[in-house]
Design goal:
The complex is a heterodimer of chains A (299) and B (604).
Chain A: H1 2-25, E1 41-44, H2 48-52, E2 58-61, H3 63-72, E3 80-84, H4 87-97, E4 104-120, H5 132-137, E5 142-144, H6 151-165, H7 178-190, E6 192-193, H8 197-203, E7 211-215, H9 216-223, E8 232-235, E9 241-250, H10 257-269, E10 273-274, H11 284-298
Helix pairs in contact in A: 3-4, 4-11, 6-11
Chain B: H1 12-21, E1 32-34, E2 43-49, H2 54-65, E3 71-72, E4 75-83, H3 86-94, H4 100-103, E5 109-111, H5 115-127, E6 141-150, H6 151-156, H7 166-174, E7 192-193, H8 201-215, H9 223-226, H10 229-239, H11 250-262, H12 265-268, E8 271-275, H13 276-283, E9 304-307, E10 315-316, E11 321-322, H14 330-344, H15 346-354, E12 358-359, H16 390-403, E13 406-414, H17 430-442, E14 450-456, E15 468-476, H18 477-489, H19 499-512, E16 518-526, H20 538-549, E17 557-564, H21 570-579, E18 584-587, H22 593-601
Parallel strand pairs in B: 2-4, 2-5, 7-8, 13-14, 13-16, 16-17, 17-18
Antiparallel strand pairs in B: 1-4, 3-4, 5-11, 6-8, 6-9, 6-10, 6-12, 14-15
Helix pairs in contact in B: 1-5, 1-16, 3-5, 7-10, 8-10, 17-18, 17-22, 19-20, 20-21
Classes of the chains: A alpha/beta (299), B alpha/beta (604).
Chain lengths: 299, 604
């Protein structure tokens, strides 16, 4: 009798958990169903975990590589793109500039992570919280990933510009500000584009980099586990920047919500926060113009 | 996950040139297999690694092969590491890795000393319309370039209280009083050891650092900077103090260590541009970083100090690259990736640290043996230089070829009867192969280098000395390159091998006409052992060579030896080279003679 009771209780718990989970998924779809998606999904490299968790045809590549393909190819083999926002909008900005139809419809944020600055203590003469604006003004050696290829690298560049102006509603006209021009040139010419900047800052004990763009995941995985973590300070300066991982569907394509849920689960497992929204990053039009300026500055 | 290596702004075109002119920077060009052999049922993964980390990677490969990390779902992975110079690998990969018999098996993964070499490879492939072979890859350890100097000399300069840089090296090189200006005339002139930047990562970094020092900048070195007369004078001044160049820093470190044992460390060289890791190895009694079976470390009597140049320096970042090459299959890629992850693990990064490198994984901090007691400073360098843009690097290497110290070299070739034996199992004799290699190597000299050609075999000359014949006297190579090539082409095998006599007389001749403004050297190629009843006094020969090469008043003539073919007396040739603080090269496989000759000529 006790065994039967235990079985009934266990069954009820399983059923209850499935119900709760289905409510979280918000569509009643059984996420445990393993039917592969027929969608051709591309994940940016920093969001590779999202693709790892999906059945069906997936591909992982740098956001900039995908973006180039989406802008230039007439029929890019993609149905959905899992990438930091606003890369899909950036693609459409560039397509419109080429008199092409925009490619993407809905872009739903499935996970977020904060963007910050890690600085080697004593290397940067800035009051806390250290800002990109101060880092650039002091001529510190700053590092961030390649904004033309790396999904987060572009956002870091945008966050830096927002830091200079103290706002995020930036337009291309702001790039004509001579003070910004001088500041941006100093920031990028003193700095180095390198996706391994955080590791290298530790390995070189601050010799290679004074300040490095980080996500909250980097802080959890690298800074907090580093032997020299006490020598690094992490700041999340205003305006607060948050990267959002979106599942962007190509126009006319329906992405099942279970795909978004699975992506969110996979990203949460590697440190992203489920849900939320991107903040503190200028819009795609500004970022596109900023990238053009960046090319001029770094040569 | 985001910490992926993105494309570096690299030195591409310049270093393309470097890679084009280089073919090998491992001693003798031979591969040092580690853990090689039968892979059994495992997936074999060959990894080419730069020579300074062969012991470390051998150790890590063994740990990996024995670990669960090497187990896959349906089998296992076996990693084999092989020592191969970064420039040589870039060159071979760009050409599809030809001739595995001579160059060793094609690697599935590669760990050069610096990411720059991967960019060079990809650029060379792109120039040919071929896809990139080296994807962005994560560095797994760092080591900075330093100027290694014996502690008494660093003390005499007031280091570290007084920062030292390339400008101080220049001042010492220019001072006619040498170390006398610092109160130590007994140390003689200031002598710099520096490898060839077309071959060696540390030399390339040193050359970049010298140019930056000349301009006073730490970033943005420009073509206009390089064209400045004062910058040119600075570079020539530093190069004038070089004792000789070469393909690997280990030549200097091993010679230094031998001199240390004899109490002559302070008069061999005053400073050598090497990576920090090498200073640690030297001070721990393992100068080349490779412990042979039975070899026990012996601490030097005079330790070295790593000077981090005050004008700034560069890091070697040691990426681990899983190659996108046509011969690498999916299983091998997966196996190589598994090894790449394995070496990033904290336990293995601690091994990295034990071997004197700075760990790439921040979870393992910089600590012992990177300590002041080992002559290095974990809190240095404070200033790091920017890698110049590709056009600047190309120009920099072009200029180095003109600014480097001139050479005065006697090429001494064995034409004994055994050189007529088959060299490649086909129609070419050993002499044929050596002739081709020598003719190609002549192109590596700069126009105002002085080069002569001597051949030797018993009774080859009609009158005394009968054991050798000067076909082309020492003179400007630009004026006699063609004549020398013709004379080399006409060589034929003759009699026996009067090795000791020709070595002694060649050395004596170079010493008697010693030119202090040049690198004075004999390049001695032989396929045999001494076959001369009239002179079999090896000890006498070595004593005279050593006596002429030591002390502050020495007129150093280096005898670089090439042991050619399987019958060459390698042990004797090594002793001859070591007696003159030069290097012995191994071309026991005649098929490697091209690469070996190129490596030998890199000394000039």
């Amino acid at each position: 009798m006790k065994r039967l009771l235990a079985f009934v209780v266990a069954a009820a718990m399983v059923a209850g958990s499935l119900y709760v989970r289905s409510r979280i998924d918000d569509d009643g779809t059984d996420r445990t169903a393993s039917a592969p998606s027929a969608l051709r999904i591309v994940c940016s490299t920093e969001l590779a975990a999202a693709c790892d968790g999906l059945a069906g045809p997936t591909r992982v590549e740098d956001a900039g590589v995908t973006a180039d393909r989406l802008v230039h190819e007439d029929d890019p083999a993609i149905d959905a793109w899992i990438v930091p926002d606003p890369w899909p909008a950036l693609v459409d900005v560039r397509r419109r500039a080429q008199q092409k139809d925009p490619l993407f419809g809905d872009a739903v944020t499935v996970a977020t992570t904060r963007l910050g600055l890690a600085t080697w203590k004593g290397d940067v003469d800035c009051p806390p919280p250290v800002t990109w604006k101060c880092v650039g003004e002091k001529g510190a050696r700053a590092g961030h990933a390649d904004p033309t290829r790396d999904g987060i690298g572009l956002l870091s560049l945008g966050a830096a510009a927002a830091s200079f102006f103290g706002r995020t509603d930036l337009s291309t006209a702001d790039l004509e500000d001579p003070a910004f021009d001088a500041w941006f040139a100093q920031l990028e010419q003193r700095g180095t584009t390198n996706g391994d900047a955080l590791d290298l800052m530790f390995s070189s004990r601050g010799a290679l980099f004074d300040a490095v763009a980080v996500t909250a995941i980097d802080v959890r995985d690298v800074v907090d586990t580093a032997a020299d973590k006490q020598r690094v300070e992490v700041s999340y300066p205003a305006p607060m920047a948050t990267a959002g991982a979106v599942v962007a569907a190509r126009r006319g394509v329906q992405v099942e919500s279970r795909v978004r849920a699975q992506a969110a689960d996979a990203l949460a497992a590697v440190g992203w926060t489920r849900g939320g929204r991107a903040t503190g990053i200028p819009d795609a039009g500004f970022l596109d113009a900023l990238l053009a300026r960046w090319h001029e500055v770094v040569g | 996950m985001r910490r992926r290596l993105v494309a570096l702004l690299v030195v591409v075109a310049t270093l393309v040139l470097a890679a084009c002119t280089s073919s090998s920077d491992d001693s003798g060009g031979s591969l040092n297999d580690a853990l090689g052999g039968d892979n059994g049922n495992c997936t074999g993964v060959d990894v080419a690694v730069s020579s300074e980390k062969i012991d470390l990677l051998t150790d890590l490969a063994k740990r990996f092969n024995d670990s669960d990390a090497a187990k896959t779902g349906d089998g296992c992975v076996k990693v084999t590491v092989r020592s191969k110079a970064s420039g040589a690998v870039a060159d071979l990969l760009a050409n599809g890795w030809p001739d595995e018999a001579a160059n060793g098996p094609r690697p599935e993964a590669w760990s050069p000393a610096s990411t720059s070499w991967t960019a060079i490879l990809n650029q060379r492939l792109a120039d040919k319309g071929e896809p990139a072979m080296a994807p962005p890859s994560k560095p797994f350890m760092l080591t900075p370039l330093t100027i290694a100097m014996p502690k008494p000399m660093a003390d005499a300069l007031g280091y570290p209280q007084t920062p030292i840089g390339w400008s101080d090296i220049l001042a010492l090189a220019r001072d006619a009083n040498g170390w006398g200006a610092k109160g130590h005339p007994e140390w003689g002139a200031f002598k710099l050891g520096k490898t060839n930047p077309n071959f060696s990562t540390s030399a390339l970094s040193a050359t970049i650092a010298q140019f930056y020092a000349a301009t006073g900048k730490d970033r943005g070195l420009s073509l206009e900077d390089l064209a400045r007369p004062d910058v040119d004078a600075f570079a020539r001044g530093v190069e004038s103090s070089v004792v000789h160049y070469g393909d690997i820093t280990m030549t200097f470190l091993n010679n230094w260590f031998r001199n240390d044992a004899r109490g002559t460390a302070l008069t061999y060289v005053s400073a050598v541009a090497v990576e920090e890791k090498s200073v640690i190895d030297y001070n721990r009694g393992n100068p080349d970083g490779v412990l042979d079976p039975g070899e026990k470390p012996r601490k030097p009597r005079v330790p070295l100090v790593a000077i981090y140049p005050k004008e700034g320096t560069l890091f070697s970042d040691n990426p681990f690259v899983v190659l996108d090459a046509p011969w690498v299959d999916a299983k091998q890629k997966a196996g190589a990736s598994a090894f790449s992850r394995f070496i990033q693990q904290p336990d293995n990064q601690r091994r990295v640290l034990e071997f004197g490198f700075r760990p790439g994984n921040p979870a393992v901090g910089v600590g012992a043996p990177i300590t002041k007691s080992n002559g290095v400073d974990p809190d240095q360098p404070q200033k790091v230089l920017q890698v110049p843009d590709p056009p600047v690097l190309v120009k920099l290497l072009d200029l180095w070829a003109q600014q480097r110290k001139g050479a005065r070299v006697l090429l001494v070739m064995d034409v004994s009867g055994s050189m007529g034996e088959s060299g490649d199992g086909g129609g070419d004799t050993k002499l044929d192969l050596a002739k081709d290699a020598a003719i190609k190597a002549l192109g590596e000299f700069k126009g105002d280098d002085l080069v002569g050609l001597r051949i030797f075999s018993t009774g080859i000359a009609p009158k005394e000395p009968t054991d050798y014949l000067d076909l082309v006297p020492i003179g400007p190579i630009a004026e006699q390159r063609e004549q020398m090539q013709q004379r080399i082409r006409s060589l034929v095998p003759t009699q026996g091998t009067p090795l000791y006599t020709v070595t002694r007389d060649s050395y004596t001749q170079l010493r008697s006409d010693f030119d202090p403004a040049r690198i004075n050297a004999v390049v001695l190629l032989t396929d045999g052992r001494n076959e001369d009843d009239r002179n079999s006094d090896l000890n006498g020969l070595l004593s005279s060579l050593r006596a002429g090469s030591e002390g502050q008043s020495a007129r150093p003539v280096r005898v670089f030896t090439i042991a050619y073919g399987g019958d060459a007396d390698q042990a004797v040739l090594r002793r001859i080279a070591e007696a003159t603080n030069a290097a012995a090269y191994d071309a026991s496989d005649p098929a490697t003679i091209d690469r070996v000759f190129t490596a030998v000529i890199s000394n000039f």
